[in-house]
Structures are given as C-alpha cells and as structure tokens.
Amino acid sequence: MTKILVTGGAGYIGSHAVVELAQAGYEPIIVDDFSNSKESVLAGLRDILGRDVPCHHIDCGNADALREVFRKEGNIEGVIHFAAFKAVGESVQKPLAYFQNNVGSLLTLIEVMNEVGVESLVFSSSCTVYGIPDQLPVTEATPTKPASSPYGRTKQMCEDIVHDVSAAPGNKLRTILLRYFNPIGAHPSAKIGELPLGVPNNLVPFITQTAAGLREKLTIFGNDYDTPDGTNIRDYIYVVDLAKAHIVAVQRLLDHKASEAVETFNVGTGHGNTVLEVVQTFEKASGQKLNYAIGPRRTGDVPAIYADATKAAEVLGFKTETSLFDALASAWKWQQTLK
C-alpha cells in the first residue's frame, strides 16, 4: 500500500482525509501533536475503518522527530500538510504563535522531505490568501491582496515559500495548493467531526453548541455588510467532499500528471451563503430554534468570498456533492453524539 504522511491528521479536516485515503487504498500515517485536537479522534477512525491508523505524537516543526518518522515508516511517497493554527480571530491576538507554527512547520517539513527524497506535497491553503477581493467569485487567477489577518498572511507566506522552493535549481518538489473555503459538517457515521477545544472560532460548531444548550446564544458578527441580508457571505463546503479533493490531488501528483511544479485549486462549492442563511438552514435541518443576536463586526473578517470552482472540476475532476442542508444535518448529528 502507498504510504501518505498526514500532518495534523487527527484534526478536523485531517481526520476526514485519513478516512478517505484509507478507503481509497492508501495507507495514511498520522503526525499530530494534539495541541488543537483530541486523541479520542483515533478511536473514531478505528471505528470507521475497522483498524488502527499509525499515529506519531510529535510536533511537525521538530525536524529530528519528523526525520525519525520518515525513517521508521520507510517508503512514504507523499505528504498532505494540514498541521496549522487556523482561527482568524485568534491570529489577531497571537500573531507570533501563528507565524512560528504555520510558517515554521512548513519550512521544517520541506527541509526533511528534501533530505529523504519525498517529492509530492498537497498543501492545505485557504481562500484568505485573496484578502478582500475586488470581484466575486474568486478564481485561482484572482490577485492575492493584503490578507485581513495574520492567519491569512501565514497562508500567503507558505504559498510563496512553496513557489520559491520549487523554482530553485535542481529542486524536485511537486506541490498542489488547495485553497479551502469554509469546511462544515461531520462524517456520516458521526464518529468524527469538528471538535473545537474551548469556545469555537467557527460558525457551525458554535451553532450546534448553542442548539445543544452548551452556549447561551450565537453572536453574529455584524449585519451591516454590503450583502443581501447584511451578514458575511462564505462558501460552505461539506468536510467529506473537501477530504475527497485531497485524494484526487495526491493521485495526480503520484501519477506525475501535474502540468507544473506548483498547481493551485480552489476547493469550494462555487456559491456563497450568508451567515443568516446558514442559521435558517440549520434550523430546518435540525428542527431546533436557535437563540442568536447581532454583535459588532469582528476584526479580520472579510465581508464576502466564495469560489469559482471551475478549474477543480475541469482539471482535477473534483466537484462537491453535498447540500448545505445535508452538511448541517450531519453537524447536528455529530453534536448529539458529543452530549
């Protein structure tokens, strides 16, 4: 079986990608320091797959520990790099931690990959690299403007690093940059899902925790944006659909089908929903009435962004399959198992 290293493989998107890799015939190897995830995820993966997934409890910013994983496992043929801090609001409060962790871990990973001769990398990027775009939807050719948060800047820097490394003489690294939009929902088994530590930074877990009575109310950050109902617009993609995009990307790299050293793809649904639309759709999908209030705008939030997903469809052969209603229903099912 082809071994694929998955950094941050116990995290929200990483764990779903591990399932899809295993079900597609790969052998996923997890690296995770559990700074933003829980070890209970490993039991969920075991329940879904019927076997344990190898997991190395290390920080992938630690070069010696990472070298040892490659040495121990042997024959790792590709890497999917998820490991990163990912909360826009928190990054405004703790910029240094975000630069050290997000940029530092990528530098270490590429250094070790070069040493051991692993050439295929799928990098977890973000639509935050577009900043506040002039036109919607954004295509891969949309100019990247100044990011609205330190988190967004780390993703811009990481993309720049990949391009510069790939352009260096003699370098063999081949990378696919996947620019995510907003992942939501949980695995249909409800064995794994979004598992925020402390107060959620993302909309949907805050919605589900409020509906479950764990939070008093949901605060919607601003209703005075230039959008149909005044709330932010985002492109909400079902996490299992997003995970499947990684399998297609890995296979493209291993089959040497990439047309250039670095390829970039938007991974979204191709349309946007306002925060209020998400709230109303959740109420329909769950049968729960949500207690919410309008609060002030949040620093670092972009008013509206959603994907043009044409390139992913035409080049990768990837399209999303799951509706907002069904994705939110899965998130509620997952929340109920957590009670």
From TrEMBL:
Organism: Hymenobacter setariae
EC number: 5.1.3.2
Span of domain NAD-dependent epimerase/dehydratase: 4-268
Subunit details: Homodimer.
PANTHER family linked: UDP-GLUCOSE 4-EPIMERASE (PTHR43725:SF47)
GO terms of biological process kind: galactose metabolic process
Cofactor: NAD(+)
Record flagged with keyword NAD: yes
Family: Belongs to the NAD(P)-dependent epimerase/dehydratase family.
Name of the gene this protein is made from: galE
The protein's name in its UniProt record: UDP-glucose 4-epimerase
MF term (GO), any: UDP-glucose 4-epimerase activity
Annotated keywords: Carbohydrate metabolism, Galactose metabolism, Isomerase, NAD
